[in-house]
Amino acid sequence: MDIAPEQLQDLTLTEILKESVSIPKSSPRTFSLITVTLIFPLSFAILAHSLFTHPILKQIESQSPSNPNLPQEWSRLLIFQFCYLIFLFAFSLLSTAAVVFTAASLYTSKPVSFNSTISAIPGVFKRLLITFLWVSLLMIVYDIAFILSLVVLIVAIDTNSLLLFLFSLIAVFTLFLVVHVYITALWHLASVVSVLEPIYGIAAMRKSKELLKGKTQMAAVLVFGYLSICGAIGGVFGSLVVHGGEDYGVFVRIVTGGFLVNVLVIVNLIGLLVQSVFYYVCKSYHHQGIDKSALFDHLGGYLGEYVPLKSSIQMEGMDI
């Protein structure tokens, strides 16, 4: 980014997207390899998941409850779902680590290569995993509240209680449109903090919460836009590729599926780059200057190039 640090806080949504899109141009080979080895498998798995589970679900639905093969089909589905979630979380964290580290290296004029990025991932991955586990605990609480709201909504419909129905409907939409988006924004920013600052876990979440103050609305728009685009891609993929066997030929479904996977790859790459740029925007907004030399040294620590941090970035602490 060629923008002065003090000017980052004034970037609009359009300018953030423009800056994010321009980052790969500084090291096209590195970002191409990251995209092919990490982001493409992640994007393919997200869309292909329904393609593989649909036949299993269809077979389960077609069998009677007394069928002796039914437990085996459920076991297949659960094993597949478990492996899918492990793959999804692993490649999500790996992609985040690679993109954020590479973008920060370019920001500090640190030499960038695919090998250096891969070498840094083990150190970054542990920090991201700890942060993700803390966010997962928060998401469990959110899921419980969301399920309870749905149960109340169902009860309100069954009892024809208008007041209870309106209350539960507002609760459901608030939890989904506000709380879910905020937690997602908190997680994405905390992931960047975990890579670029010597804190992770719950400490990174606290720092993320502080950074979001004053920029929550912008973060909400970015997250909601990203989730909406991904949802639209998934919906089209499901309609045309997964469930479109009777209306579309194999060739059309393959071409459409390939096109949508590539679109999702681009969306995921830009989304990760936006996370990085938005972090600098929030730091600038709160007048928390980033010492490029200290950040340079911090990134070098992932590669075994230990140099003591020389700025206030090290004063954030190591609490988790």
From TrEMBL:
Q: Which UniProt keywords apply?
A: Membrane, Transmembrane, Transmembrane helix
Any transmembrane segments, and where?
31-57, 78-108, 128-155, 162-183, 189-206, 218-242, 254-282
Q: List the coiled-coil residues.
A: none
Origin superkingdom: Eukaryota
Instruction: State what protein this is by name.
Output: Uncharacterized protein
